[in-house]
Specification:
binds calcium ion; four-stranded antiparallel β-sheet; 13 strands; binds uracil; 432 residues; 16% strand; four-stranded mixed β-sheet; alpha/beta
């Protein structure tokens, strides 16, 4: 088999066989096939696309390029949730204990990564003593006994994806649905769960800017998952404005606690229920999505979800009393209000720019070496569609520096007030 012939085949719009796709990914991972040939192939895929079969084969070839996590020692159907990334997305912190409270095993491997705020692990580390450096055996035992545990990223998962993504990044071939879908799904499949619920975000703060593009990506990922034997569903949700009110690490832990108590922001709660009901359904714990949603609401009402969160924190060395005593979470030195300059209705809160403002305060990492400040961040006091009077606070800045002029400027530049505006639709679509 020669790589040049496979590039020509895809260039001419033909379908690559399973063997050909395996040859390409194996050769590329080992270094036998050079970057320039793979970059040419990626461009051919960008223009000629891949069939559903090719996408599934590409995904599995990437999965098989490295180690995979074996969760078979954990009893029950393991359902994972994945978000394509947004601003102030507190759903994982809520969903993990919420679903575990219904005896569904949550075996979460999570990373730190870059972004507006830290990852799930960083957020949880805002709780004194909480740690994710546990052994694989301990992880499995915790999930079997308590239905919930989080462990830091381990093993060399999907090395082909790391190489391919870096190459696509510099060859203008990121924006191919076939390549994005197989990249994301390969990582979820390598992480070992039996079923996958996807939260595909759309809007200014998302990778997919329009609902149509997000829907196409969601269909592509659901099709790959189902074709390789992992039951998969997706929700397409709004990320034109940040989710909930909190953007920051300790602030989002507090928001998650409020939501588990049934007192969280409406949009965060609604999205958690939309994703959670798919998780419960895929875990075979309910016979319909409606029944699944009722079960979730019940464990919020009766306090079991909040109890599960305490149990989870204590199991991993954390101080569970923070749940009832929020004063124990890290606190910023300065609280600075950003008042509206006119009367009106909030019409726009540009999610990615507001996220960047939180990062400038220290809530997230700009580079891998950056230190995170767990206490800082932003609280949105108004969301799109809410009316506001001049002088009323739009945002509260939680900072550990007293000069935040740069952050205030970014907030004013990215929150627009108009005469009329409607709250955006939160759930654009469900893909099953
Ligand atoms: N995120 C990924 O993980 N992969 C892509 O290709 C694009 C976004
Ligand atoms: Ca939030």
């Amino acid at each position: 088999m020669r790589m040049v012939d496979l590039i020509a085949k895809k260039r001419d719009g033909k379908e690559l066989t399973t063997e050909e796709i395996n040859f390409i990914i194996e050769g590329y991972t080992k270094g036998d096939i050079p970057d320039y040939q793979v970059s040419s192939l990626a461009m051919a895929i960008y223009f000629k696309d891949m069939t559903a079969r090719e996408r599934a084969d590409l995904t599995m070839a990437i999965v098989n390029s490295g180690e995979t996590i074996d969760l078979s020692a954990i009893e029950g159907i393991k359902v994972d949730k994945h978000s394509t990334g947004g601003v102030g997305d507190t759903t994982t912190l809520v969903l993990a204990p919420l679903v575990a409270a219904l005896d569904i095993p949550v075996a979460k491997m999570s990373g730190r990564g870059l972004g507006h705020t830290g990852g799930t692990i960083d957020k949880l580390e805002a709780i004194e003593g909480f740690h994710v450096e546990i052994s694989k055996d301990e992880f499995v035992n915790l999930v079997n006994e308590h239905k919930i545990a989080v462990i830091g990223q381990t093993g060399n998962l999907t090395p082909a994806d790391k190489k391919l993504y870096a190459l696509r990044d510099v060859t203008a071939t990121v924006d191919s649905i076939a390549l994005i879908a197989s990249s994301i799904m390969s990582k979820k499949i390598a992480a070992g769960s039996d079923a996958i619920v996807l939260d595909v975000k759309t809007g200014a703060g998302a990778f997919m800017k329009t609902p149509e593009d997000a829907k196409e990506l969601a269909h592509a990922m659901v099709s790959i998952g189902n074709n390789v034997g992992r039951k998969t569903m997706a929700v397409i949700s709004d990320m034109s404005q940040p989710l909930g009110a909190a953007i920051g690490n300790a602030l989002e832990v507090q928001e998650a606690i409020d939501t588990l108590r049934g007192q969280g922001p409406k949009d965060l709660e609604d999205l958690c229920l939309a994703l959670g009901r798919q998780m419960v359904f895929l875990a075979n714990k309910a016979s319909s999505l409606e029944e699944a949603e009722e079960m979730l609401k019940e464990v919020i009402r009766n306090g079991k979800a909040l109890e599960k969160f305490k149990e989870f924190i204590a199991n991993q060395g954390g101080d569970a009393s923070v749940v009832d005593d929020p004063e124990k979470l890290p606190k910023a030195k300065f609280l600075i209000e950003v008042p509206a300059r006119e009367d009106g209705v909030v019409a726009e809160i540009v999610a990615d720019e507001i996220g960047t403002a939180a990062m400038l305060l220290g809530a997230g990492r700009a580079t891998k070496e950056s230190e995170i400040d767990l206490a800082v961040g932003l609280m949105l006091n108004k969301k799109i569609g809410e009316s506001v009077k001049a002088g009323e606070s739009l945002v509260t800045i939680h900072a550990n520096r007293d000069n935040v002029e740069d952050v205030i400027r970014m907030i004013y530049d990215n929150i627009r007030i108009a005469d009329h505006a409607e709250a955006p639709v939160l759930i654009h679509d469900i893909v099953t």
